[in-house]
Amino acid sequence: MIKQYRLLLLALLLIGCKKEPAIELEDFNLNSKVSTFVSDKNKYKTYTNYYQIKSEIIGADTVSDGELIGSEQPIRIDYKQQMFSYEDVIARFGDFEFNAINFATTVTGKLMVFNAVAGKISLKETQSFVQLFNDKYGKAAKTKGEFIKPFDIHTWQLKDRIIKYCVVSEDDSNALKVGTDKNQHTVKQGKKETYLKAFIYIIKKEYADQVIGQMSSGDLLYCD
Fold first, then answer.
1. How many CB atoms within 10 Å of residue 24?
2. How do residues 177-212 score in pLDDT, each as one tens digit?
3. How far is CA 220 from CA 45, 101, 109, in A?
4. Coil, strand or helix: which one is 40?
5. What is the per-residue burial (b if ≥16 Cβ within 10 Å, else e) of 28-62?
6. Strand 100-105 and strand 149-157: pairing?
């Protein structure tokens, strides 16, 4: 009876520790097809070229080369998050979880870069993540990027890919945060906060020149 109880307890613990399904970034396959991440089953019901994964809404946008009107040529397709939830786990690397994804492909559907976003993360967590990568891939090259304000970029050069990890300080000072009192009557201004947001980019090396520093909008623009 005691043995059966222990086995039941172990089973319950294993179930409780089971991770929810997510895209695994460790040993990520850069030859993955678009349908690995978004497909007809994910299509957003209201708008075309939009997809929904859990709470995340992703829009697909064909990017042209910027030549004169009438002579533009498509150069890639960006899949960019439009909204997401901090509660979702869309991707993970080891025990580190990410709430949203973005990616870009060639016009023929070959993956150029895959990005995952941690919406809110602590300084200690970012340091632990960088240390994990340093232990796995060797010490990162550290540089600075700038979009509105400076941010840190950690870069690892691998045989077939370049991995970048960018840590950006964000604040919600322009966002209206509301709350209610304990009686649910009075609406009042909530406390605003500053927090860190982290972006990991896994770039297929043959497309590095077309990706790094070439993105101009959304979460992909921090790939610098």
1. 13
2. 334 444 554 444 555 567 899 999 999 999 999 999
3. 25, 10, 17
4. helix
5. bebeeebeebbeeeeeeeeeeebbbbbebbbbeee
6. unpaired
